[in-house]
Amino acid sequence: MSAFLRRHWPLLLLLVPAITLRVLTWLAYRPALLFIDSFRYIDNLHALRADQLDPIGYDLVLRPLLAVGGLAWVAAVQHAGGVLIAIGTYGLVLRLGGRPWVGALAAAPVLLDAYQLQIEQNIMSEVTFEAVLLGLLWLLLGRGTPGWKRAGAAGLLLGFGVLTRLVGISLALPLLVFLVVAGGAWRHWTGWRRAGAGLLGLLAVLVPYSARVHAETGKWGLTGPSGNMLYGRTAAVADCANLHLDPALMVFCPAEPREKRLVDNYTHADLDPNWPGPLPPGADKAALAHEFAIGVLKAQPRDVAEAVLNDFAKSFAWTREQDPTDVPLDRWQFQPSYPQWADQSLIDLVTLQNDGVVASVDQPLAKILRDYQLGGGYVSGGVLGIGALLGLVTVVRRKKPLDRAQAGALLAASSGIVLLFASAVFQFSWRYQLPALVLLPIAGALGFTTLTSAGRKRLAAFPDDVDAGALDDFRARHPGLKLAPLTVVIAAYNEAGGIGEVLEKMPDQCLGMPVDVLVVVDGATDDTATIAEDHGAYVCVAPRNRGQGAALRLGYHLAAGSGAEYVVTTDADGQYDNSELETLVRPVAEGDADFVTGSRRLGHEEADSRVRWLGVRVFAALASVLTGRRITDTSFGFRAMRAELACSVPLHEPQYQSSELLLGVTARGARVVELPMSMRLRKAGKSKKGGSLVYGANYARVMTGTWWRGYVLRRGRTRAGRAART
C-alpha cells in the first residue's frame, strides 16, 4: 500500500478537491441541470425516434440510467464518469511511458475544470462523448499496435460517438490515418487492412442509422431537422447590400447588422415556422436556404473562412471572453438561481416525474462554485494549445516506426485539433471546447514524455558494471596510483580533434599545487584515448558510450579514490580558458567555498545559437526560483569542488548532469560561488547535445526532478527521521 501511495500520490492529491467539487455541484443544483437539449433527450427517451435534431446515442445511455434512478442519479453517474475519465487518462499516460506527475497533470483539466463540473451536472451528452474519446485512445494505444479486430472495434466505438455528438464524424480522418500508419505499416497491406476494418466498423453503425433516418424522414442523414449548419455559418457573415442573388433567395439574408448576428440563431432558424418570411407557394424552405448559403460561399469565401478561423482560434484563448456573436458563455457557468431554459412548469414537471422534487438551488453552495469558476477555476485555452503543440512537435524525434508515446501524442493532438476545427466550422461555443480537455492534455503529456525520453534512462548507483570494468582496467594499468591534490577531470567522446590542444594548454601547477589530468573516455571510437595519453593525461576508458554525466561521475569517484583533494571539470572541446584555472580554484583551496562554477553571463560568451543563449537565461531563472538563491548559469562546465562533495551527491543522469550536480550540492547546503568566466566557441568536433527543443525539455525535467528529490523528498525524510528519534 505504501508503494502504491508513493507512486500515485500526485493523482490521489488531485482527487480530493475534484471529488469535493463534484459533491458540492451535485448538492447545489437539484436534482440536475436541464439545458434546452436536455428536454429533447428526455422527450425521445422511449420512442428513440431518428427524426430528431440529436441522434439517439445519448438516449441509449440515459434510458437505462433513468430506469434505475432519477435525474440526480444520472448527474451522480456523470460526475463519477468524469472522475473515471481522469483516472483513465492518468493510466493511459503511465501505460505509454509517462511519469506519475505527468499523468496527473494530464488528468487535472477534467478533474478540476469548473465548466466540466457544470456540464456533468447537466443532462447532456458531453460526458458520454468524452468517455468515447478516451475509450478510442485506449483501444488504439493501450496494448501495442492495434490489429484489425481492435481497429474494427474502434470504428464501432467511433460510430457510437457520432450518434452521441455528430461532430465526432470529423474524427474518422485521424482514426483512419492512424490505422494506416501505426507501426510503420502504411507501406504494406497491414495498415490498409486495419483502416478498412476501422471504416467497416464505423459504417456498420452509421449506415443502418442513416437508413432509419431515411425511413422516418425521407432523406438520408444522421439527424432529422437539418439544423442547416451551412446556412447558419454563412448567414452570419452575408453582406446583404452587396450580394447579387435571386430575390427569392435574398429573403434569407438577415436584417440584423453583421456584428450582432449569432450563428446559433440562424443554424436553428428552421425551427421557427415564420422564418424567413413570405415565400412563393410550394417553395422548399430548406433547399432555398441551402442555395442561399452556397451563393454566399461563392461571393464571400474569404469572409466565411476568416469567421471559421477566428472561431477556431478562440478555443486557444487564455481567458474566457466572448464576442457578441458567440453562444452566450453564461449557459455553461454556475448561476445563483436555477437556469430557465424552459417554462418553470415544464422544468418542474420533468423533475417531479423523474425525482419527485421540483428544481432547486442551494445558493450558498452555488456561490462557492460560481466564485471558483469565475475566479479562474478552468483550464485556459492557451494551456490546451501548449498541449496540442507538444503533441505535434514529437515529429522532431523522427523515429521509424513511431513509438507508442509518440504515436499517442500525435493521435491525441490531431484528434483534438480536428474536433475543435470541426466545431468552429459549425459555430463557436465554449461547450464545444470540453472534449479537448480529454484529448489535448493527453497529447501534451505524451509529447513531453516523447521529447524527454532520450534522457530518461537513468544511471544505476555507482559503480555499475561499466564503472567497475573501467576502474579495474585503469587500476591494472596504474597500480597504486596517487593523483595530485588538484585533478582536472575531462569527459571525452570522439574528441580527437580538440583534446590535444586543451591538454597542451593545461598548467602543471596551480596555487602551488601540482595538477594532474584524468580523461575519462566514454566509449569513443576514435583516437581520443591515445592522444590524451600522448599529452601526459591519465586515461580511464569506459567500454561503451553512456553520456557525459556517466563519464564525469566515474571521474569524480576515481579522482577522490586516488587521493585528489580538489576536482576541476572542463570540456575536451576547448570552450573554456585554462588560464582562468587559478581564479576558479582559489575560493575552494582557501576554504571560502565548497563548489565554484564559472558563469558566462557574469563573464564573456561567444554564442552561436540564439536558442541556446535564451535557454541559459531561462534555466538560470528556473534554478533561482527552485533554490531560492541567485544563479546565473546552470550549465557552465568549468567548475572546481572538493572531491568528497562531488562523490556525495547521487548522480543518475547520463547526459544532463550539470544542473543535477549544481542543484544537488546546493540542496546539501554546500557553499556555492559563481565567478565571471569566459566561454568560447567549440574549437573542433561537434556538440553531442540533441535538438534545442528536446535538449531543453530534458534539461527542465532533470532540474525539476533533482529539486524535488533534494529539496522536498530528502528534507522531508530528514524531518521524519528527526521526529522518529525524538
TrEMBL record:
InterPro entries: Glyco_trans_2-like (IPR001173), Glycosyltransferase_2 (IPR050256), Nucleotide-diphossugar_trans (IPR029044)
Cited Gene3D superfamilies: Spore Coat Polysaccharide Biosynthesis Protein SpsA, Chain A (3.90.550.10)
CDD domains: DPM_DPG-synthase_like (cd04179)
Transmembrane parts of this sequence: 12-29, 70-93, 123-141, 153-186, 407-426, 432-451
Keywords assigned: Membrane, Transferase, Transmembrane, Transmembrane helix
Coiled-coil spans in chain: none
Family: Belongs to the glycosyltransferase 2 family.
Protein name according to UniProt: Glycosyl transferase family 2
Species of provenance: Amycolatopsis australiensis
